[in-house]
UniProtKB/TrEMBL annotation:
It is found in: Cytoplasm. GO terms for cellular component: cytoplasm. NADP(+) binds at A72, V73, L74, P75. The gene is proC. The keyword Amino-acid biosynthesis applies. It comes from Pedobacter steynii. It is an enzyme of class 1 (oxidoreductase). NADPH binds at N59. GO terms for molecular function: pyrroline-5-carboxylate reductase activity. This is Pyrroline-5-carboxylate reductase.
Length: 272
């Protein structure tokens, strides 16, 4: 991994921001001394200060001293943050990466100046173990910056570049999607208890089976139905179970949930 030469500020160091910082260091993309973390209560960041990260609650001062700025606060907190840092923004020097749901690049450029380089990124909580599915998009940032942001997020998982108008959809499928697949695993483990396994056994079996199913698709580059066909024999137990689930709305409820989450994700940020 080619090491980044500049300095990185992560504003709003919650789970996503901290996981990204750890990933960048673990992959030798950057040293802790190149990364500054901010949040209102910096007591929680003391362990990172001991590891050599910069730690501060002064967002403007950190931005002034950085090249790449990751906006990792909640959408509802973003306008206040942008107001704090606007006086120190240097459009020739700064690249902004926003992970705030439902906030367009144009929204941020309207607050910070129209020439500002802004890229949106939507990771998910599997970023904590380097297994995020991160979607990135921009409306005007350079291809060089897009390549740099791709490299950054590849340190914590897989990256797909998409059109910006699909970012709220990416939020539903990839970020909210973690919860949907977790709930499916939980339900499978409860089914396991009903048919005779202890709860801890059933959960372990469901988790590994789900992981195996996902890895089959990733490594074999096959379609789910191809793999399903290999498990379903005529008049067999798999097809009976699958059809029972479908009769009860298994696929349609998942599709409806993803659609509703996408609608909600687009309404989290208010421009005022």
């Amino acid at each position: 991994m080619k090491q980044f030469k500049g300095s990185i500020a992560i504003l709003g160091s919650g789970n996503i921001g901290i996981s990204l910082a750890k990933g960048l260091v673990k992959a030798n993309y950057a040293l802790p001394s190149q990364i500054s973390l901010t949040r209102r209560n910096i007591t929680n960041l003391n362990p990172f200060a001991e590891q050599g990260f910069g730690v501060s609650n002064d967002n403007a001062a950190v931005v002034a001293a950085s090249d790449v700025i990751v906006l990792a606060v909640l959408p509802q907190q973003l306008n206040q943050l942008l107001d704090q840092i606007r006086p120190v923004v240097d459009v020739k020097k700064h690249l902004f990466i926003s992970v705030a749901s439902g906030v367009s690049c144009a929204d941020i450029r309207n607050k910070l100046g129209n020439e500002t380089q802004v890229i949106r990124a939507m990771p998910n909580t599997a970023i904590a173990i380097g297994q995020s599915m991160t979607c990135i998009a921009t409306d005007s940032a350079s291809s060089e910056y897009m390549e740099e942001v791709t490299r950054m997020f590849e340190t914590v998982g897989s990256v797909v570049k998409i059109n910006e108008d699909l970012m709220t959809s990416a939020t539903a499928l990839c970020a909210c999607g973690i919860a949907f697949f977790l709930r499916a695993i939980r339900a499978a483990s409860q089914g396991g208890v009903e048919i005779g396994f202890h709860a801890d056994e059933a959960l372990k079996m469901a988790v590994q089976t789900a992981k195996g199913a996902a890895d089959l698709l990733l490594q074999m580059q096959s379609h789910p139905e191809q793999e399903i066909d290999k498990v379903t024999s005529p008049k067999g137990c798999t097809i009976a179970g699958l059809n029972e689930m479908e009769h009860n709305g298994f696929s349609s409820s998942l599709i409806k949930g993803i659609k509703l989450s996408a609608t909600k994700a687009g309404a989290l940020y208010t421009k005022e």
